[in-house]
Design goal:
Low-confidence stretches: 1-8
Structural class: mainly alpha
Helix content: 40-55%
Oligomer: single chain
GO molecular function, one term: DNA binding
Mean pLDDT: 85
Number of strands: 2
Number of domains: 1
Organism: Sulfobacillus harzensis
Strand order of the largest sheet: 1-2
Radius of gyration: 15 Å
InterPro entries: Transpos_IS110 (IPR047650), Transposase_20 (IPR003346)
Distance between the termini: 33 Å
Protein name: IS110 family transposase
Length: 128
């Protein structure tokens, strides 16, 4: 069985998958709506005075987009990856965040960057 196209690590495939899943960026009023669509926004558990201290991501929306972004973040955290993403990840880890929480924060940051690039319709100047 051939490998899943998103697992190949090919940046063009990841970008195409993300763009296909996002569709028209005008559907999203702000980057938080895009984050919610990808399903990487935190869930909220509260009742009365109780507020849960452990919140997971909602996983609603597109699982293909979530998976493509996860692979893209893992690739950007490699030594040859994005210096900006690595610095953001290291800041989260230095703040005491667990590995997966820091990775999801990186996915959230990547979605904010994607939203900014698509809404401004500008070329990305600092990718690495």
């Amino acid at each position: 069985m051939p490998p899943h196209p998103v697992d190949s690590g090919d940046g063009a495939t990841l970008a195409a998958t993300a763009m296909a899943e996002i569709g028209e960026i005008a559907r999203f009023e702000d980057p938080k709506k895009l984050v919610a669509f990808a399903g990487v926004d935190p869930s909220v558990h509260q009742s009365g005075d109780f507020t849960a201290s452990v919140n997971r991501i909602t996983k609603r929306g597109s699982h293909r987009l979530r998976h493509a972004l996860y692979i893209a973040v893992l690739c950007s955290l490699r030594p040859t990856g994005s210096k900006r993403m690595q610095a953001f990840y290291q800041a989260k880890r230095a703040a005491g965040k667990p590995y997966k929480v820091a990775v999801v924060a990186c996915i959230n940051k990547l979605l904010h960057w994607i939203y900014a690039v698509l809404t401004r319709q500008e070329a990305v100047a600092d990718v690495a």
